[in-house]
Design a protein that fits this description.
Layout (H helix, E strand, L loop, with lengths): L1 E9 L1 H9 L4 E5 L5 E5 L12 E9 L5 E6 L1
Antiparallel strand pairs: 1-4, 2-3, 4-5
Length: 72
């Protein structure tokens, strides 16, 4: 299993695009500098009235299948 850490600071308007399904993927840069892309459905539970803010940890298997995404 592999894990990466990243920050998100998404406005309310952009978060609404993720929530409604208009934006289907999230692209972030991990603290290691690696670019990471994953389906937007995985961040919907982190959306609040201000958008999405925080530090996150994503875990995935050797085939790059997402196992877990957590706010830390």
């Amino acid at each position: 299993m592999m894990e990466l850490y990243f920050s998100l600071n998404v406005s309310r308007e952009q978060a609404l695009r993720y929530y409604q399904g208009n934006a289907r993927t999230v692209i972030v840069t991990a603290v290691t500098g690696q670019k990471l892309q994953f389906p937007a459905e995985h961040i919907r539970s982190f959306i609040d009235q201000n958008g999405i803010q925080g530090q996150f940890r994503i875990q995935f298997d050797k085939d790059n299948k997402l196992i877990e995404l957590n706010r830390i």
